[in-house]
Amino acid sequence: MIRFRFFLTLLRCAPKAIFCLVPRSNYMIAHKEKYDAQARFEYCKKILKYITRKALTITEYFGKENLPDSNYILYSNHQGKYDAIGILQAFDKPTSVLWEKRQAKKFLSRQASGLLDAIKIDLGNIRAQFEAIQQTIEYVNNGGSILIFPEGTYGPNENKIQQFHAGCFRCSIKTKTPIVPVCIWDSWKSMNSRSLKWVTTQVYFLKAIPYEEYKDMNKEELCSLVESRIKEKLAELEEIHS
After folding, report:
1. CB neighbours of residue 107 within 10 Å
2. Which of 4, 34, 60, 67 has the greatest number of beta carbons closer than 10 A?
3. CA 25 remoteness from chain centre
4. Is the pTM above the cut of 0.70?
């Protein structure tokens, strides 16, 4: 029953996706010489906005003024299939995702990940994980910004945090770029709840952490810092909504 809303969203998206969105996306991905990163990102956002409507979801954004002018890495808590869809619509400039390899192969995810130049990570292969982290470091060093979910996956955690994995914070230590903690609230309701009513999710971009603040930390300490910032915001929101 929990997955019913997700499959209903797929069913509602299918006609336009099959005959319009997927073919157009595939063409743009195959001809990147014609479509730069900005053009592909804008088309991806069009797809994400369409999915959001069909998922009967409204997403509110807070703290966009905390986003640095330069490239940066975002670390967000993870609740369900809608998380990246909701977060990425906030940006005007191309922003990529460290995307779980198996999920990136699925319907519309394949197209979105291709348009975003997403970096795929195999969570079941340690060597592949290391390679994905190296690719992410290179991507950011070349001026890109990227979204990472340190929990790696999600379960029936709703608005609770699962264990953060410290390995991905190596990306920030190596690139020395600002960190933006992201706190999502009620994102799980969009595709992982039982309700068939319109739902509202929230995305909070917390105060950025400059390199000067974490330069003396190892990846475990940095992981703990970012996790604590997100936990603090979740606790605040839980009190507000209780």
Report:
1. 12
2. 67
3. 19
4. yes
Taking the C-alpha atoms of residue 103 and residue 122, their distance in angstroms, rounded to an integer, is 10
How much is the pLDDT for 195?
Answer: 84
Write phi, then psi, for 195 (nearest 5 degrees): -70, 145
Q: Are strands 96-100 and 146-148 parallel, antiparallel or unpaired?
A: parallel
- Extract the tokens encoding 30: 């195959």
Mean pLDDT within 196-208: 97
Which among 99, 108, 7 has a CA at the least distance from the CA of 49? 108
Q: How confident is the model at residue 49 (pLDDT cuts 50, 70, 90)?
A: very high
CA atoms within 13 A on the CB side of 99: 26
Q: For the chain, what is the HEC assignment?
A: CCCHHHHHHHHHHHHHHHHHHHHHHHHHHHCCCCCCHHHHHHHHHHHHHHHHHHCCEEEEEECHHHCCCCCCEEEECCCCCCHHHHHHCCCCCCCEEEEECCHHHCCCHHHHHHHHCCEEECCCCHHHHHHHHHHHHHHHHCCCCEEECCCCCCCCCCCCCCCCCHHHHHHHHHHCCCEEEEEEECCCHHHHCCCCCCEEEEEEECCCECHHHHCCCCHHHHHHHHHHHHHHHHHHHHHHHC
Encoded tokens for 165: 């994995």
pLDDT in tens, 86-129: 999 999 999 999 999 998 888 899 999 999 999 999 999 999 99
Using an 8 Å Cβ cutoff, are 185 and 237 in contact? yes
Give residue 29's Cα distance to chain centre: 20
The pLDDT value given to residue 1: 41
Show the tokens assigned to 163: 């264990």
The count of C-alpha atoms lying within 13 angstroms of the C-alpha of 15, restricted to the half-sphere facing its C-beta, is 2
